[in-house]
Design brief:
- By secondary structure, this protein is of the alpha/beta class.
- The chain is 41% helix and 16% strand.
- It has a seven-stranded parallel β-sheet with strand order 5-4-3-6-7-8-9, with helices on both faces. Strands 12-11-10-13-14-15 form a six-stranded parallel β-sheet, with helices on both faces. It has a two-stranded antiparallel sheet with strand order 1-2.
- The longest helix is centred in the C-terminal third of the chain and has 23 residues.
Length: 457
């Protein structure tokens, strides 16, 4: 490995590797610009910097993805000349939306909706999705993608294949290509498979659950390397008997946060950026916030709650219940290029995680770190998010179901605001820059390729 990197450094001009010495990587991802969801960010940023580490990316993605939003600004992140192959995906969500009366609407993350969904038809649709579309609704893309990519790779060889999931159907495309072509393959897990927070909401039969777990193990055992985003996911896969695992977390792009933002000190603004699914909503948090406003007239006067992105109807109902809606601004979805100004101008940044998912470590938390604003996190104690905030001293984790503890935590943030955040001093942030993480990912890609070549010899 040392010899390779020494040679690689000599084959550069102005820090850009010669194209003819670059290795090629086929990246299979469902989410890609102009899609505008959190699932897009990870590989858009890797692709942005991979050439600097000797890799030429080729992207295979969906031409007609079912996504909650569009963001044309993300297309500007893709370097000139990167080959992007788009193919249509047979999407069954049209039937789901027809039967549930959601025609013309996008399906949100974790069943997020701005309107209340209930009734037999909706429950039946979710049951069908969980038990007949295994591992997910993109299962119909597996066979045609395998056929197409098998032919493509014969005339356009690559050194490695990387699949990004969810949707985990894409890992099955990687599995098929590995069997047929024996090209080195990395399975990149942005989220868990059978332990993801909404897995239980799919109402799986024991048969469907068994198939999911069997497919998950097959992918984990067959890939040359599994990459996960958090320590909890690492430990989970280790307990399944998997040794080929590495952690490459999500992160932030320094270039997006290199500007000054004005903060209105007349308000105690709590800003949430991104989606809040129903499983992440915390009544205890809104109750504690309401209690603070009732007991402290100055807090009540200055409190402002801002949501940038989609929030589930349960959140709106909670705000109404605790008389907070009039203090709330619903900005809605914004292009990613506009997000940093909301984050950097906040007094406090809010993140809400499912109370049962200690392994959830969303991409936005790293952008929160880059914004250099205090973070209130609502979710499970002693999970990955809690550990990250402790390591970086960027904020405080508060248990989602404990109103008294949240109330005491809010008092601490209010005191910080009144002191001008004199004690707020985050650290160890730079390790989560996208460029540094791409360097780490490229090293793993090189390792897998070199190991594969050594085994052949």
């Amino acid at each position: 490995m040392i010899g390779f990197y020494a040679i690689h450094q000599r084959l550069t001009i102005n820090d850009q590797p010669f194209a003819k010495f670059m290795r090629r990587a086929l990246i299979i991802t469902y989410y890609w610009p102009p899609a505008g969801s959190s699932g897009v960010q990870r590989w858009v940023k890797f692709v942005k910097y991979l050439r600097e580490y000797g890799w030429e990316p080729v992207v295979y993605t969906a031409n007609n993805p079912e996504v909650a939003s569009l963001d044309e600004s993300l297309s500007k992140e893709i370097p000139n000349g990167v080959e992007v192959i788009r193919r249509n995906v047979p999407e069954p969500y049209g039937l789901y939306k027809f039967f549930t009366g959601n025609r013309g609407k996008k399906i949100g993350v974790g069943f997020t909706s701005s309107t209340k969904k209930s009734g037999f038809i909706n429950r039946l649709a979710i049951w069908v999705r969980g038990n007949f579309f295994i591992p997910d609704a993109r299962m119909f893309w597996i066979r045609p993608s395998t056929r197409f990519l098998k032919d493509y790779l014969k005339t356009n060889p690559v050194d490695i294949i990387i699949t990004s999931g969810p949707p985990h159907s894409l890992h099955l495309i990687g599995l098929n290509l590995k069997k047929k072509l024996n090209i080195p393959w990395i399975a990149d897990f942005r989220d868990p498979w059978t332990s993801i927070y909404f897995y239980k909401d799919l109402k799986l039969t024991r048969f469907a659950d068994r198939i999911n777990r069997k497919l998950e193990l097959k992918v984990l055992r067959s890939s040359d390397l599994n990459v996960v985003v958090s320590k909890s996911m690492y430990e989970e896969f280790k307990q399944k008997g998997i040794d080929k695992i590495e952690i490459v977390s999500n992160g932030f792009d320094h270039s997006e946060y290199d500007f000054s933002a004005s903060i209105d000190d007349n308000f105690f603004s709590i800003v949430h950026v991104g989606t809040i699914p129903p499983s992440s909503n915390s009544n205890a948090f809104w109750k504690a916030l309401s209690r603070m406003a009732q007991e402290n007239p100055e807090f009540d006067k200055k409190l402002k709650i801002i949501f940038v992105g989609d929030v589930d109807s349960s959140v709106i109902n909670s705000l109404k219940e605790y008389n907070l809606l009039e203090k709330t601004q619903l900005v809605g979805y914004k292009p990613h290029s506009e997000i940093p100004k909301f984050q950097k101008s906040a007094q406090v940044l809010l993140v809400m995680a499912p109370s049962t998912s200690k392994e959830i470590l969303t991409g936005k938390i790293f952008e929160y770190l880059a914004a250099n604003r205090p973070v209130i996190a609502i979710g499970p104690i002693e999970g990955d998010l809690d550990n990250l905030l402790s390591e970086t001293r960027a904020g405080m984790m508060l248990p989602s179901n404990s109103e008294p503890e949240i109330f005491e935590g809010l008092k601490w943030f209010w005191e910080g605001y009144n002191s001008g955040w004199s004690s707020f001093n985050p650290q160890n942030i730079n390790q989560y820059s996208r460029k540094e993480l791409t360097r780490r990912m490229s090293e793993l890609m090189n390792m897998v390729v070199i190991e594969k070549q050594s085994n052949k010899n």
